[in-house]
């Protein structure tokens, strides 16, 4: 069973370390992707670095390029190789940080997750509620 957060199943949770600009900037990036049962996936990216911490929420829905700024550093995120089916989500993420003439790749990996099966979840929930009700009545 997937973890639930904000009422949605968490299907991908990936945490990685990064070091950029000759070690001047370092920290971790945590990406969490949720399944709301559609072809759009609410995603929360949290960055914790020696320059500051923060997070952003995005909706992933296919190959795309996302531009954001974090602590004065421009971040360019490229989503490619997007593949979504009723049972799995898979995509490649490449993130590059730019500050002035300097640039650094901070994330480059393929993320995969097993999709949430809403019908199975609803059946499991109904079974659990029925068992709880039966136990309460006995």
Write down the domain tally. 1
Q: Roughly how much helix do the residues carry, as a percent range?
A: 10-25%
Structural class: mainly beta
**Assembly status:** single chain
Secondary-structure element series: EEEEEEEEEH
Would you write up a description of this structure?
This protein has 138 residues and is mainly β. The protein has one domain. It is 14% helix and 64% strand. The chain has 1 helix and 9 strands, in the order E-E-E-E-E-E-E-E-E-H. Strands 1-2-3-4-5 form a 5-stranded antiparallel beta sheet, with no helix packed on it. Keywords: Plasmid.
Topology:
Elements: E1 3-5, E2 8-20, E3 25-34, E4 41-49, E5 52-60, E6 64-70, E7 73-84, E8 88-99, E9 102-114, H1 118-137
Antiparallel strand pairs: 1-2, 2-3, 3-4, 4-5, 6-7, 7-8, 8-9
Question: What are the salient characteristics of this protein?
Answer:
4-stranded antiparallel β-sheet; 138 residues
């Amino acid at each position: 069973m997937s973890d639930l957060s904000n009422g949605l199943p968490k299907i991908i949770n990936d945490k990685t370390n990064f070091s950029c600009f000759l070690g001047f900037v370092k920290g971790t990036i945590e990406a969490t992707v949720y399944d709301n049962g559609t072809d759009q996936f609410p995603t929360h990216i949290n960055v914790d670095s020696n320059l500051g911490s923060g997070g952003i929420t995005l909706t992933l829905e296919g190959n795309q390029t996302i531009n954001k700024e974090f602590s004065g550093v421009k971040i360019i995120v490229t989503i490619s190789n997007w593949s979504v089916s009723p049972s799995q989500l898979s995509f490649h993420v490449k993130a590059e940080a730019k500050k002035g003439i300097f640039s650094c790749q901070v994330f480059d990996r393929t993320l995969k997750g097993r999709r949430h099966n809403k019908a199975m979840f609803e059946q499991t929930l109904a079974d659990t509620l029925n068992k709880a009700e039966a136990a309460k009545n006995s």
